[in-house]
C-alpha cells in the first residue's frame, strides 16, 4: 500500500533545527546548486531550493528523470559538493559554510558512501579494501582486520577476503563495497545508484542489505532509477527539474 505524504519532508526540513526533537541525521533547507557552463560566465542552476530530511533508521529513495538533479542532491546532502544557497546539516553539524577540509572530517565521522561503480581498489583484496577504509577511519591494524572480517561475515562475503575485485562478480564487488562502508559504522549511508550495474537478482540482494542496515538504526539515502526498488524503501522523494515534486511514504 502506498500513501502520499507531501508535507512530512518539507515541513520538517523547513523548521529550523533548534531543539533536540528537531534533530535529523541529514537535513537540508532551500538547497540551491549551480554549475558553471563550460568556461563561460553563465551558470546552470540544477537544484532550485530543495528541502530534505531523513530520520534515524529511515531508508529514503530519491527518484526522478535523468538530469533532474538526483546525484547532485545526494552529493550536496553528503557534503561532497558545496551548495550555493540554503543550508545542509550532516549528523547535526551545519556544514554549509565550513571549509572543504572540515567538511571532510564531518563526513568521515558521520557518513558512508556506496557508488554504482563500487570504487574498490583493484590492486587490493576484498579484505584489504575494507581494512584500508578502516585505517583511514582511525583504526589500528589489528582492530581493522577484526572489523573487516566481522563486516564481511555480516554480508556473507567472508569467502572473498583474499579475492581481488577483478575476480569478483558485480554483485560480489558491491557487497564488498557495502561491507567497507558498514565497517566504519556510519550513522548515514548515501548510495548513488548502487544497483545500477547489477542484474535484478543482485539488485534485490543489495537493496535487502540496505534495508537491514536501516533496521539497525543507520539512515540510508539512495538514488535509484528503479521504481520497484524505491517501493521497498520507507519513503520515496521524487525530484523533477531540480525540485521535489512528491514525497511518498511506503507502508510495510
Ligand atoms: N560537476 C558538474 N559540472 C557541471 N554540470 C554538472 C555537474 N554535475 C552535474 N551536472 C549537471 O547537473 C544536472 C543534473 O545532473 P545529475 O547527475 O544530478 O542528475 P541525475 O538526476 O542524477 O541524472 P542521472 O539519472 O542521469 O544520473 C545535469 O544537467 C548535469 O549535466
From TrEMBL:
Residues 1-12 have a biased composition (Polar residues). CDD domains: ABC_MJ0796_LolCDE_FtsE. Residues 1-23 are annotated as: Disordered. GO terms for cellular component: plasma membrane. It comes from the Bacteria. Keywords: ATP-binding, Nucleotide-binding, Transport. One of its GO terms (molecular function) is transmembrane transporter activity. Signal peptide: none annotated. It holds the Pfam family ABC_tran. Residues 26-251 form the ABC transporter domain. This is ABC transporter ATP-binding protein. It comes from Pseudoscardovia suis. The lineage of its organism: Bacteria, Bacillati, Actinomycetota, Actinomycetes, Bifidobacteriales.
